[in-house]
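Section 3.1: Structural characterization of target chains.
Under the original work plan, the team committed to producing a structural model for every single-chain target entering the pipeline before any wet-lab resources were allocated. The record below documents one such target. The sequence was received from the expression subgroup and is listed exactly as submitted; it comprises 176 residues.
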Amino acid sequence: MMSRAQDWAWVQQDCFTSQGMVSVCERLPTHLECFQDSCYQLFYARFYDWQTEDKCNATGGGHVLEINSAEERDFVKGFLNTAPPRRKRLGEFPLTSVWLGATDSAVEGEFRWLSDNSEIDFQDWARGQPANIASNRMSQDCVALDLFQDWRWDDVSCHNTNALVCEIKNVNGSSG
């Protein structure tokens, strides 16, 4: 199991302590896994793009999911495919799309990472993407992973709402 240390870094922690089974596990995110030097936390609630960096920053100083290699892409696909299903209650939606921390809002067609405005080296666009098909006069300057396109990248309107994966530096090193 994973939990946050006081310095907001993710560390390994067993759910059993000298006091027996504690509520630490109950406070953990619904779906959290680590791979190489990052931990990934899934939020099922729907967020607008402009809410995502703030939410991730408040969640231990992380940032919106960034995929930088084929290995990380494969991990993320498995992570999303094995996410526990959510019951449909008010505010909960099936997991069909997740924000990726990329945008081309500064220069159309030049996608950059939100966290540091760096160029994106690895890309995994769905067939025909990025298409920048404007709907209701809203351009597609944001990027989401789409379940129905095998979690490949799709440029979408920043006014869409999607689930969120925050990526947080794993100070304990490699896992996965």
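The domain at 2-169 is CATH 3.10.100.10 (Mannose-Binding Protein A; Chain A).
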